[in-house]
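Holo prediction — adenosine monophosphate.
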Amino acid sequence: MFKTHTRLVIRMGSFKSLEWLSRFLKETPGDSQVGGVTRQVPNACWSRVKPTRSPDPKLMLWSEEMATKLGLKRPNGDVLGGSSIIEGMDPYAQRYGGHQFGNWAGQLGDGRAITLGEVKLENEVLELQLKGSGVTPYSRFADGKAVLRSSIREFLCSEAMHHLGVPTTRALSLVTTGEKVLRDMMYNGNPALETGAIVCRVAPSFIRFGSFQIHTASDDYSTLKTLVEHTVKTHYPGHSVADDSGLVKWLTHIAEQTAVMISHWMRVGFVHGVMNTDNMSIHGLTIDYGPYGWLEDYNPGWTPNTTDSSMRRYRYGQQPKIGAWNLARFFEAIVPLMDEPALLHEALGAYTEVFAELQNEMWVKKLGLGSFQESDETLIVELNALLQEVETDMTIFFRLLCSIKQPDIKSLSDAFYDSTNIPTEQWNDWLSKWWKRIEGSPNRQDMIDANPKYVLRNWMAQLAIDAAESGDFSVCEELYELLKNPYDEQPEHEEKWFQKRPEWARNRVGCSMLSCSS
Ligand code: AMP
Ligand code: MG
């Protein structure tokens, strides 16, 4: 009894009581210079750099769940605002490169993210990273800061994604810095001062596809090899990359994890917005929340990112293909370590195969089909076409479908943006086919588990941001709580949050239009 009690007290402690590791710094080559100006940092995986002190750090949002996992009591804003370094922390910025919008962009790196250290827990090690805590050698022409709106979007969405069952980095805290940051939000010559903020995010590591690419691009195969060995030893202990076959097995594993992540995005209607290879986690986690968005109207051609509005490279319906393209660029980076690079086709093939299987499984669950039959393909293709006939809300459509009593589109009319313009006959035809297929008895539990009732719609995040910008974080708190249980009915929240996009949000910046400015 006494022992349990003592352990409990130790578990919920301060940053000082955590066990800090620096495996990445110890096992991979780094920059000999500490901090310093923006520059190229050849032959390195990282640069030591201290966060910039915030003039008036205030902890505004706190993930109690993440904190419990780490064993942390709610602190003040000092450490999480970059103003204090605890013994055991060895802060650094990671070096990486990446393909941005299809083009090789050279060295990128953590331009505004600084890792505090790795925390050893009973069964895992988690890295804590501050996003928005000042310049690093990788900041290029920018200030290393982050603004409140983008920090709220990252905090709320990464936690919401976790509760939706989508692999993701997590958030521990959001601190306002007490400093104003200048941003030209839509890149249209209208710069304005915004509230500065820092999110502390958490993941097994923030290693990306681009972390490997940068070394191959500069012909530094020795650092490439060291980074591969570190990554496998630390994060994939069941794997060995001593030969080609081991490498291919490891890469196949990553391909599968990537397929799992993207199939979840498709299930819940998430559009990442900037699937550059520097934003692809080696763990298959959703990472770097920027101009992401959620499908409201079911339009596979939609992307919230105005920076991508002409090509729409990262539109919802193209995410699976981009996953393959990004994996191909990552695998190319591993070629110098192989005798028979043609074997890499196997790993890439695994992505396509696993993704196709997961898509079938997804539709089986979303439609309560029980198991997949060949003939279901037609049903699914027809459904996808019908959902695009008129403006139809993805989340509401699938959620109402979970409780439909007979094949009549009337009971789903709330999912349509214009109730006077529902293609009733076509829908009733489709619903009858579906009803016949499931013999009037869909697997409703599967459907509920696959079709969330509440997601972080763009306008919901915007309402939270509007309130927070005038000092009121209660909407952030409300959404944080709501989105902890996205599959639950929560009838008390229905009227406010189980709603289609309101008209005011149709063309509003922050809702339908977002840029990379953050
Ligand atoms: P992202 O598109 O947000 O993933 O960022 C692409 C690159 O730009 C990364 O190397 C970031 O670290 C860097 N970056 C983005 N915003 C800033 C900023 N405010 N200051 C410095 N670097 C930044
Ligand atoms: Mg990024």
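READOUT: The longest strand covers residues 170-183.
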